[in-house]
Design goal:
By secondary structure, this protein is mainly beta. 7% of the residues lie in helices and 60% in strands. 28% of the residues are buried.
C-alpha cells in the first residue's frame, strides 16, 4: 500500500468527522494529555527468522476531539521502541552456546485515529482505529553470537534499516474512566506495518520485513471546550 493511500484515508476520516459536528443538543469536547506503556514487537520476515517478542516502551502526547455522540478524532505524537528478538531454541546450535540477538528500533510515530465510544457519563468503552506513520530515529543491536550464523538467514545480524519512513494501520479496544480530575484510559492496540524497513526487491535478501506491535498503554486526558 502506498503512503498516499494511508494519508488519504486519514484525511477522508477527518473531513467526514468535521462535517458532522453540528448536532442539536450535543457539545463538542477537546481533550489533551499524555500516554505511556509497553510494546511487544516482532518482524514478519520472508524468508522466516525464528523470533520471540521484543519488549519496548512507548510514550507521547494525545489530542482528542469528540465531534458528535459516540464518535471523535484522536491524533498522537509518540516515541516508541520496536524490533525483534531471535529465538535459537528450535535450531541446531550447541547447548552451551547461549546465543542471544535482539535489534531495537526507536521511532517517532503519528497515529491518526477514529475514536468510537459507547457508555454512560462516567465510563466509556471505546475502539481506536486508523492509519499511522513513523520515522526511524535510531537502532541498536545487542548480541553474543561472536560471528556465528545459527539461523537459516543471518544477513539481518549486520544489516541496518534501509528505509527510515514507516506506515501502517493500528487499532484496538479500551476502557475510559471519566473523573473530576480528568479522564483515565486503559487501551490495548495492535499495529501492522504496511511498509518494509529493508529493501525487498528480487535481488535483496528479504522479500518482506515489516513490523508488528502489540501495545498496552495508559493515557491521561484533561478535557476543555
Amino acid at each position: 500500500m502506498k503512503p498516499g493511500i494511508v494519508f488519504l484515508s486519514g484525511l477522508l476520516s477527518f473531513v467526514a468527522l468535521s462535517g458532522s459536528w453540528a448536532q442539536n443538543g450535543f457539545h463538542q469536547e477537546w481533550a489533551v494529555g499524555a500516554a505511556g506503556g509497553v510494546n511487544l514487537s516482532s518482524v514478519g520476515f520472508s524468508p522466516k527468522v525464528q523470533e520471540d517478542m521484543l519488549t519496548g516502551y512507548l510514550g507521547g502526547l494525545t489530542l482528542r476531539w469528540i465531534t458528535e455522540k459516540n464518535l471523535g478524532l484522536q491524533v498522537e505524537l509518540n516515541f516508541k521502541q520496536q524490533g525483534w528478538k531471535e529465538n535459537f531454541d528450535e535450531l541446531s546450535v550447541p547447548e552451551d552456546a547461549n546465543y542471544r540477538f535482539q535489534h531495537r528500533m526507536n521511532y517517532a510515530e503519528l497515529p491518526f485515529m477514529t475514536h468510537i465510544y459507547f457508555g454512560g457519563k462516567h465510563t466509556h468503552f471505546f475502539v481506536n482505529l486508523g492509519p499511522q506513520i513513523g520515522f526511524l530515529l535510531g537502532e541498536h543491536t545487542e548480541d553474543n553470537l561472536n560471528g556465528a550464523t545459527p539461523q537459516n538467514i543471518n544477513a539481518q545480524h549486520t544489516m541496518p534499516a534501509d528505509k527510515r519512513f514507516e506506515w501502517g494501520i493500528g487499532g484496538g479496544p479500551g476502557l475510559e474512566l471519566r473523573t473530576r480530575i480528568g479522564y483515565f484510559l486503559l487501551e490495548g492496540r495492535y499495529y501492522y506495518a504496511l511498509s518494509d524497513f529493508y529493501n525487498t526487491r528480487h535481488q535483496d535478501v528479504f522479500a518482506k520485513a515489516s513490523s508488528q506491535v502489540i501495545s498496552v498503554r495508559l493515557t491521561y486526558l484533561m478535557p476543555f471546550r
